[in-house]
Predict the 3D structure of the following.
Amino acid sequence: MTRARRWTAGLVIAATCALSSGCYETTSPQASGNTNWLSACDHHDSCGPEASCHCGTCTRLCARDAECELPGERARCVALAELDAPEACGAALATGSPGVCLAPCSTDADCGDDLSCVGDACVATPPAAARPPSTDAGPAAGALQEQARSEAALRAVIEQSRNASLPSDASARIWSCEAGALRIDPAGYDEAFAIDVVQDAVLIAGVATWGSDGVWRIERRRLSDLAPDPAFGTAGVVVGGGSLRADAARALATSSTHFYVAGVDDYLGGGQVRLERRSLASGELDATFGGASTVVATFDRTPAELSQRMDVARALAIDASHAYLGGTGFSIEKRRLEDGALATEFAAGGLAHGEASSSSLVSAVILSKGLIHAAGTTPLGDMRLEARDAQGGELLYAVTQRMPDEGCATQGVALAADPGGSLHLAVGSAGDWRVQRRAAADGALEYERVMPSTGACDQASALVVDGAHLFVAGAFDGSWRIEKRRLEDGELVPSFGDDGSVSAELGGAATALAVHEGVLFIAGVEGARMGPQSSVWRVERRLAESGALLPCPGTAPTLPRAPECRGVATQDIAAHPGDAGCQVQVVTSSGCAATNVRASTDASAAQDWVLPEGAVLDDGVDASARLGPAPSSALLLRGFGLSVPDDARVLGVEVEIDRHSDEAGTVFDESVSLVHGATPEGESRARPGAWKERAETVTYGHPRDLWQAEWTPQRLNDPSFGVALRARADPTGSARYGAVRVHVYYCE
């Protein structure tokens, strides 16, 4: 490979890194029994964990020979343009992909089965009829590149390549829930960049990479259990992007019927901004938008410049009629939602530039009170904030703040507005963790909170405003970090996690935040960023009040109903005249069948209770509700797994409840009832007095109380037996149920 070709390949890899908020140190694949290094392949799955399928060979992309070295193995970095095998390499050759590691050879005998010696390198043997008649690869490669410049031809090449090389389950690959976190591993390098909660679902967007093919990946998951929505795309996933290179979906915005997703097409070595409109229910592209179901913008680049520059859309906001895209060159585009066309009344034909340099970047756009606020970074890595008139695009002010040079890559700026109109920024620049509040009118700094740098390129990457608080997420000292701060002064809220923050030592970073009904949804990347087969999407749900990591719904293990749960003799029950000739015993749900309890709410559940299953176990996770004077919906707990002997005489039912309020003196019992099915039976045992702020265990009923209802062993053992809880507040307050236990006293 010539020096010029190696240098060009390096540029392509560098451009790929620019799409992410990080890059990686290139390392050689490791020889192991799980890697078919330099053997023939038909898709990436057949290559094991340390290689990918390129040119029909289990190998990896490269820019220099040193990246192909393995102990006891010979391989060199071969530029695709040097290979006389366009059929074997497919569309990668047409789009100018970098080199691949291949074994050197002189004859076919040096290559073994299923490989041939082409251009002094072992590649997959193409069909005889498909072999090119000429050994001069230059004109063939150039012709393919010219052919691929049309959108239709390029899409055909994409589909052919993906059908041949992607695993059959690519759209619904691997997802699991471990210790409360959803881990999604569709391919090699994977990173989630955006998250949004809409209706009854969570939308997540990012990139999944198979070898050199980075694709847009958008998932819709049910809000109730985070399982993929089967009605959306293929098994809950749509895969998009327009090229065979480093495509990535970077931003989301939703309306009542559609969602809009923006990102980049890596088109023939350059980058085009891409905007799509898709059905919120099915994920299908809207054919009425942009003519071909997509809008490709260039941020004012010429076709010649596209071959050398990587334009990226990093920010997206919509109102009732328009979409606003922000990205490279500190550019903002305004487009009509009805058809994707540029709004020519905005700035210069629909496009506004804040910085001339292509290395400046808008990373956040919000709409507030008729203004567009855009935040991002300059070529020097400094923070820049702009305000423009949303109608005509006139620049009202621009503020630039110099960031200290910590030797870390510029990551961008997150931006949100509070109800009072102030702007809040998380500055991911220069390697320190920075949170600011600025006046919307002129961008004046009102306060700034800086976490001392750990030297690990700490970055605050995302933020969201909820009520009187600000939540910030990013990477700090090599860990995910999520903070809760007061809007008024930016100080940490000590009751959230450990003195205002929670963290997880995962590598990567939390990159996106959303909040819904008291629950934080956090998305990002876990593992090494931009390394081959080294990272996965990670999605967490945490309580906005405390920062507690919520368990994966439906995945908690169930405990067997062991014989010892049937009942134990008790010594502390007072004698009663009716007890003559029988021994009083108690059967309890605590410790044996509690994890079998089913938690749900009545028809008005969506109005108040968050995470009803939090009332099942004493595990630090609560069922919670923000209440007013009106009674809450009923929190129903059923399936306690009681096993009262069939011939026993039931004496009483006692219910223990761990409860507390976030504000002392504001929350009260409305009703505490026993139910069979969903119907309360007998009398409520609600207790007078306000709940305490500190968690306490309160007992309802007693060993001789049947709650003015007839409870037989058969009815108590029925899975539909349970407890219904209602609360209220005066005037407002947060109610929290920690764990509920049932004790049945009987004699035989």
Observations:
- The CA atoms of residues 106 and 522 lie 53 Å apart.
- The helical segments are 3-19, 86-89, 91-94, 137-148, 151-165, 303-306, 713-717.
